[in-house]
Amino acid sequence: MSSLDESGFLRLKQIVPALVPIGKSTWWAGVKDGRFPRPVKLSSRVTVWRVEDIRALLARGEVAE
Hints:
- This protein has one domain.
- The protein is of the alpha+beta class.
- Strand 2 (40-43) and strand 3 form a beta hairpin.
- It has three helices and three strands.
């Protein structure tokens, strides 16, 4: 987690499975049911997550398949 910037954005491939050891479909299911942070749409084809939200998720330790 120390390799993450203090702020900014991450793409899905930078999160799954690099930081969160789950599959993409599990990640999206978690986003849908509120277990994982909601994304930010930068454009119609670009979806990102705030680094702060991912840091908080990892700090809580609630990431399990």
